[in-house]
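For the sake of clarity, the format in which proteins appear in this thesis is described at this point. Each number in the token line that follows is a code from a learned vocabulary of backbone shapes. One such record is shown here in full, so that the layout can be seen directly:
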Amino acid sequence: MLWSSFYLPTLKEAPAEAEVVSHRLMLRAGMIRKLTSGVYAYMPYGNMAINKVADIVRQEMNRAGAVELSLPMVQPADLWRESGRWVHYGKELLRFKDRHERECCLGPTHEEVIVSILRGELRSYRQLPLNLYQIQTKFRDEIRPRFGLLRGREFIMKDAYSFDRDDEGAERSYKAMYDAYARIFTRLGLRFRAVEADSGSIGGKFSHEFMLLANTGEDTIAVCSACDYATNLERAAVTPRGGKNSLPPPPLEEISTPGVKSIEELCLFLDVPPDRTLKTMFFDVDGKVVAVLVRGDRVVNGIKVKNYFDAALAELLPPEKMAEIGAPAGFAGPLNLAADYILADHELEEGGGWIAGAGKTGFHVKNLDLERDARVSAYADLRLLTAEDPCPRCGASLELTRGIEVGHTFKLGVKYSAAMKAYFLDENSLERPLVMGCYGIGVTRVVAACIEQNHDADGIIFPPAIAPFAVEILNLDPKSGKVTEKALEIYDIIRGSKLDVLLDDREERPGVKFKDADLLGSPMQVIIGARGLERGIVEVKNRRSGAKAELSAVNFAAGFELWKDRLLEEWSPRPSV
């Protein structure tokens, strides 16, 4: 492709809206342009990178035995009511009515649609297993879309759905998709980790997230230093240390703490460490008020609270509701609460004599004993894991690192098939619900996450598998007939080797071309100028390492092949970390 024939609007400066590296660089490199909040146009250069990812995803899905189809983006509300997700999915589901006042939504995912289509067609165990997938635009009405393609409202996703006759077959289908995902991200040249994760609004009892390791990632993952345990922090189990406090605490004592509302203020006021304090958080769990108690230096894990009750929704209670249950903001505690449940993190069984809110403004209590002074409904694992907690599997130390979720695999079981009456006949002619799995990859998110993982101060550093153009040729003297002739000759040579190549034939200063080339991030650069040709050489540059070499202008093809092979070897697929 000649730059003069392409549309590649690069920017010298990133717009003020750009918050993270990938967002800034994708805007500057002319890959995306914002239409409205969380919705972007994929410009030609960005679309090429997206298609490179989609091609590899498609190849590996086909290799794993999945079959491609395409499903409607507009979905009737009745299907979501059948599955129970019309309300449960929440405000991210963009709902609307058509001209006939029929309720619909824009598809954020397609479990209901695929089940509705197949429930009348998959009638025999002989038709199983089956795995169908699509690569399609999705829409989720994020409350705070940000970070460009990392958290948008409209995006491209690969979603696949497997159907089996029993759990054993579903496990085989899940393993086939897990392995396919590992091959996809390995082929793309990305550093990733598969971690155990919460299934969220999709449902099911088990899932894995595929995380691209990046310091700018929104998610925190816990990785064991000794075994293969790896999990999203939201799912990470905290192992009780064991033992209970056997010493009876002194009598409960109320203390005046005017204006002291936070744990930090309380610790300063009383000159105590935060691990002696107790924090009370309040949740609305499917309409029930739940008070959750954790140590003052811990963080409540809302996902664990939701999962404890197997609830559809678990949200922090609004401040105005707290006063109604005897929980004034900043002074709430487990005393005299009108909550439906009081849950305590199991760590609190190990201690006593806590300092906590007294349940009235301006006062706290000390020497609080939960068994004596509160009505705790149950003790459970309710907090976020920390780097000091041991691995729940082997007891070794854990490392907390950052990652960006780019893929998710779910074991759904019969959640959708039972609810939507998708049955098949087994070999004994008995009706049984289809056993399902679902598997998603954020295709557009992969491109953005790749940039978060592969960039420097000058711009993008694309892995060859994702790069829109594997090679960029820089014609430094476009007004020179000799240089232009050689540039076009080399352009044809590289195209003949089946590499995508961009020839910068613009009448721009060399400095502009060098900056744009580094910004765009093609793995290989070929630099052709009058001075070099006078010496009979053409310069090549490795974008990742910055290393340069000189190749013969006369025998360019042979020299380029050797140099290219060495560079590609640096990017050759490695096993997942």
Notes: The domain at 253-380 is CATH 3.90.960.10 (YbaK protein). The longest strand covers residues 398-413. The radius of gyration is 29 Å.
